[in-house]
């Protein structure tokens, strides 16, 4: 099962994910440094953004903390019978905004052009 969208920032700005306890993700990321990317694009308006958070991930194992997160966070889009929370502590945050078909740094985003003489 793939992880669901992050619910909101966790403690101290951490990214909080919820997923099923049966997900391979839980075993793969606990204690590892991971990168989490989220994007939003409006194709019609040619606008959007992309953010990548990199840092150590930890599965929430303390029962009281898990219960508090389950009670205070918005409900997941797809409920899992055994919900597990994963916190990613941001060590590096990078991002890009797309405005009018151009990334914020000013390089145009265009389709391939035909070269004359070919």
Overall 3D shape: elongated
Helical residues, percent: 10-25%
Low-confidence stretches: 1-8, 106-118
Total helical segments? 2
Strand content: 35-45%
| Main sheet specs | 7 strands, antiparallel
Order of helices and strands: EEHEEHEEE
Q: What separation lies between the terminal Cα atoms? A: 47 Å
Going by helix content, strand content and strand pairing, the class is mainly beta
Q: Round the Cα radius of gyration to an integer and report it.
A: 18 Å
SS elements, strand count: 7
Output mean pLDDT: 78
Please, could you describe this protein's structure?
It is a single chain. This protein has helices at about 25-30, 65-70, and strands spanning about 10, 15-20, 35-40, 45-60, 85-90, 90-100, 100-105. Strands 1, 2, 3, 4, 5, 6 and 7 form a seven-stranded antiparallel β-sheet that branches. It is built from two helices and seven strands. With about 120 residues, the protein is mainly β. The longest helix is centred in the middle third of the chain and has 10 residues, at about 65-70. It is elongated and about 45 Å long.
Strand and helix layout:
Elements: E1 8-9, E2 15-20, H1 24-29, E3 33-42, E4 47-59, H2 63-72, E5 83-88, E6 92-99, E7 102-103
Antiparallel strand pairs: 1-2, 2-5, 3-4, 4-5, 4-6, 6-7
Key structural traits:
single chain, 118 residues, mainly beta, 7-stranded antiparallel β-sheet, 2 helices, 7 strands, elongated, disordered N terminus, disordered C terminus
Report a brief summary of the structure.
It contains 2 helices and 7 strands. The termini are far apart. The model is unreliable at 1-8 and 106-118 (pLDDT under 50).
């Amino acid at each position: 099962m793939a992880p669901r969208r992050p619910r909101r920032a966790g403690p101290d700005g951490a990214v909080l994910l919820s997923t099923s306890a049966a997900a391979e993700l839980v075993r793969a990321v606990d204690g590892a440094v991971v990168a989490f990317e989220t994007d939003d694009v409006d194709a019609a308006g040619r606008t959007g953004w992309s953010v990548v958070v990199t840092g150590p991930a930890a599965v929430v194992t303390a029962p009281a903390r898990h219960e508090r997160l389950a009670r205070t966070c918005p409900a997941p889009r797809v409920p899992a019978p055994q919900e597990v929370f994963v916190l990613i502590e941001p060590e590096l945050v990078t991002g890009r905004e797309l405005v009018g078909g151009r990334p914020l740094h000013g390089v145009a985003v265009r389709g391939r052009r035909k070269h004359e003489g070919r």
